[in-house]
Design goal:
7-stranded mixed beta sheet; 2 domains; alpha+beta
Length: about 250
């Protein structure tokens, strides 16, 4: 029987072995339980105590010896409910200290370089801008690759709705072989202006940035994004973008 669901509910492999062994054995001392569960004596009591705290195991003392027994399996539902309440409380507490944690991160001195793999990684790198930009700020992308999978197009369309809600603007320069429908779509979003690159350079790599952050991305079958936090580097790439932007034409 696949018991991985119990792991997802918050039980360790050892706790699962002990709990299911007790269900099978009934009320027993630690000796038979160790033999059935194949859990060493050195950690069996630690696991039992954790299961007792979770309300999944209880014990009685007979002749000065503890006899353990598993709670009804329906008790797992109660444990999960308590865990959900605890996680929700913890989530609220984390949200309360996030501004402080972000201020520590943003106040860090020196340059940082971080790599993100996969399209999910590109999303994470891109969405970092929502923590650094405020209403009226802008980001740019230069040399956007013409081919993207449909789910990637869908993500960027959803993200533009988020960008609009945040009041952030953007300017985008696409490779010249990008389908016109893509630029038409992007220009349809408030605060976004998309154009073709003013040259015939075609590359799967693109560059983007804002403030002191620069992205270098590769959106192919094995996507990767590199995020560089460094003001001089950001200023240099922004200067390149502005030169290309001056030479580009409005999309019609």
């Amino acid at each position: 029987m696949d018991l991985s669901t119990l792991r997802e509910a918050g039980l360790t492999n050892g706790e699962i072995k002990v709990y299911t062994s007790l269900l099978k054995l009934g009320s027993v001392t630690s000796g038979p339980l160790i033999k059935e569960s194949h859990i060493s004596r050195s950690i069996i009591y630690e696991i039992l105590n954790k299961l007792i705290e979770k309300g999944l195991v209880s014990y009685v003392i007979k002749d000065k010896t503890k006899h353990y027994q598993a709670s009804d399996p329906k008790a797992i539902e109660g444990y999960i409910e308590e865990r959900i309440k605890s996680l929700n409380k913890n989530k609220s507490e984390i949200e309360g200290i996030l501004p402080y944690l972000l201020s520590l991160k943003n106040s860090a001195k020196g340059s940082t370089v971080q790599a993100y793999e996969g399209f999910k990684g590109i999303q994470i790198a891109h969405e970092n801008l929502y923590e650094r930009l405020k209403k009226g700020d802008e980001y740019y992308y230069l040399g956007i690759f013409s081919f993207q999978k449909e789910e990637q197009h869908s993500y960027w369309q959803r993200d533009h709705l988020r960008r609009i809600k945040a009041g952030i603007k953007c300017r985008l320069l696409f490779n010249n072989d990008t389908d016109k429908s893509v630029l038409k779509n992007r220009n349809g979003y408030k605060g976004c202006e998309a154009r073709y690159m003013p040259s015939d350079i075609k590359t799967p790599a693109w560059v983007g940035g804002y403030k002191d952050v620069t992205f270098i991305g590769l959106q192919t079958d094995e996507p990767i994004a590199i995020e560089i936090v460094n003001q001089p580097i950001a200023d240099s790439f922004k200067a390149y973008f502005e030169e290309f932007w001056k030479k580009s034409k409005k999309f019609k």
